[in-house]
């Protein structure tokens, strides 16, 4: 019984035990191993309330980084130093490519933000036609989830889908940005793509790259990620919780 109680208590972050939303059963005060009552057989079986799921939370990117195959080690320049610009470019295997890394910093698990092992969804709110540049026969991009420290260096050499010996990482999700697909998305989802779910984490990072060569034309997509209170809100966000 004692070991069960100790095990259960380790599942709960210590900061949560005093939170009113995490009612700890009265009997569990006896988990202190020096407490005489802990060795007794009358300790009631704890009935932990299910951990409540926080209400819907929205996180906006802390950082968008341009990755350019022409400057594989580049991290600093007016373009590469921007933190809110999304740009993808791909034409032929022989021409340079541009990808973008999108990073979110959620911070540690907390009762007001996200619960342990919560599911986070990556969303893309389509920019208005007037606030983006989109071109080519297949402006369709893949997202690859990568593990990165918050604020860490991001260069083309660190783009996991940069096609070293034809190897490609697992695709997390794909966004179809052809005119027809965007029209459908506006008509049915208000322009919102729910790209996919993942487990929430202090830091969440995705790399985006065009899925296909353009051939005669360049597959290209560019916009500024805009978060509230600026508007119109457009670009990437992560949502988690109840009612999202
Ligand atoms: C358990 O501990 C809390 C915090 O120390 C205290 O407020 C509460 O009265 C204790 N309950 C019992 C049954 O001892
Ligand atoms: C737990 O403690 C609260 C406040 O101390 C008390 O109102 C409640 O009756 C107790 N519950 C049980 C099952 O002992
Ligand atoms: C979270 O997931 C891990 C690994 O699947 C598991 O060991 C742990 O018990 C889970 N924690 C909670 C609070 O569900
Ligand atoms: C989870 O967050 C930690 C802390 O920021 C980070 O080191 C790790 O790479 C992240 N894992 C994933 C899968 O993103
Ligand atoms: C990787 O290179 C191969 C061979 O050139 C090509 O067929 C494939 O489309 C490339 N994939 C990506 C993601 O660039
Ligand atoms: C992209 O969307 C268009 C229009 O719905 C569709 O015809 C095309 O097959 C889609 N492409 C991919 C790769 O899913």
- Measured distance between first and last alpha carbons: 39 Å
Broad structural category: mainly beta
Number of domains: 1
* Strand percentage: 25-35%
Major sheet attributes: 5 strands, antiparallel
Order of SSEs? HEEEEEEEEHEEEE
What's the helical proportion of residues?
Answer: under 10%
Global shape: globular
What ligands are attached or bound here? 2-acetamido-2-deoxy-beta-D-glucopyranose
Low-confidence stretches: 1-40
Compute the CA-based radius of gyration.
23 Å
Physical arrangement of strands within the biggest beta sheet: 2-4-10-7-8
Number of strands: 12
Please tell me about this protein's structure.
The protein has 244 residues and is mainly β. The chain has one domain. The protein has two helices and twelve strands, in the order H-E-E-E-E-E-E-E-E-H-E-E-E-E. The strands form three sheets. Strands 2-4-10-7-8 form a five-stranded antiparallel β-sheet, with no helix packed on it. Strands 1-12-5-9 form a four-stranded antiparallel β-sheet. 25% of the residues are buried. The N terminus is likely disordered. The site of one 2-acetamido-2-deoxy-beta-D-glucopyranose has 5 residues, from loops.
Quick description:
The chain has 2 helices and 12 strands; from the N terminus they run H-E-E-E-E-E-E-E-E-H-E-E-E-E. With 244 residues, it is mainly β.
């Amino acid at each position: 019984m004692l070991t069960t109680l100790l095990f259960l208590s380790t599942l709960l972050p210590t900061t949560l035990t005093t939170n009113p939303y995490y009612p700890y059963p009265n009997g569990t005060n006896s988990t202190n191993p020096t407490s005489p009552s802990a060795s007794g057989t009358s300790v009631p079986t704890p009935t932990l309330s299910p951990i409540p799921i926080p209400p819907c939370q929205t996180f906006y990117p802390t950082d968008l980084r341009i990755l350019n195959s022409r400057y594989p080690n580049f991290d600093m320049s007016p373009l590469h130093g921007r933190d809110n610009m999304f740009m993808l470019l791909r034409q032929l295997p022989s021409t340079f490519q541009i990808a973008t890394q999108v990073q979110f910093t959620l911070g540690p698990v907390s009762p007001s933000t996200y619960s342990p092992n919560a599911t986070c969804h990556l969303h893309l709110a389509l920019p208005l036609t007037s606030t983006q540049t989109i071109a080519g026969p297949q402006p369709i991009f893949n997202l690859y989830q990568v593990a990165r420290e918050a604020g860490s260096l991001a260069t083309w050499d660190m783009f996991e889908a940069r096609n070293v010996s034809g190897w490609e990482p697992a695709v997390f999700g794909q966004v179809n940005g052809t005119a027809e697909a965007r029209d459908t998305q506006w008509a049915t989802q208000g322009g919102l793509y729910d790209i996919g779910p993942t487990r929430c984490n202090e830091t969440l990072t995705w790399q985006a790259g065009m899925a296909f060569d353009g051939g005669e034309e360049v597959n290209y997509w560019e916009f500024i990620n805009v978060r509230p209170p600026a508007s119109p809100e457009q670009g990437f966000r992560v949502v988690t919780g109840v009612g999202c």
